[in-house]
Amino acid sequence: MPTLVLARHGRSTANTGGVLAGRTPGVHLDDTGVEQARAAGSRLAGVPLAAAVSSPLERCRETAAEILGRQAYAGEHDAPPTPVLTGEPGLVECDYGDWSGRKITELTGEDTWKVVQAHPSAAVFPGGEAMADMAHRAVEAVRRHDSRVKEEHGDHAVWLAVSHGDVIKAILADALGLHLDSFQRIMVDTASLSVIRYTATRAFVVSSNTVAGDLTSLYAPPTEGETAAASSDAVVGGETGVRTDETPASPTSEES
Q: In this predicted structure, what is the pLDDT of residue 236?
């Protein structure tokens, strides 16, 4: 099973201004956001990324470029090439419609705000997208790319997807088996990294919303003669970080 690293974009000019950017063009990373993206790239520098996809919006593409620019394997002999970034419309920000470009403080009194907080599965933004539709297309996108990565690069591949806060929260909620109405319990900070591994029967959330710590251990190259696929079974009693012949090949916890 490949390993998916979900990255939220770094802090943007809209974040700084307290504005709900949505799909408004021309929203870029601010100086802090650039530094956050570079830090995320440093955390992944020792992980050879097999593929990289991103929301087409500028703040995500800029974040992805900073991460890919720090791949330690780039240019090394026999090293895998740094992947070409692919735009993925399924990972674009939720279409907030008439809310786009407005101050968050102006929106908290709206009736729709209360629905978004309590029952997001029923929320439809005026002139925009239903949150349920956003969740559906985002989950479909990452599962489709994960299947492609597995087919092209194998079970040990690690790949990157860069997107937005609500989009990543929806993907994590799906992986955790949560109803969309519970996704507001999940936090996704700017430039945070979350890790998911999909198997035939379930998804494993290895980590979520991490902003520090080297992630080199995510990549475990196949050993000579290894053919067995990773198990969908969870280890009873919890992961140990130690693999034996009797231990199912399920994910190990990320070191922090």
A: 67
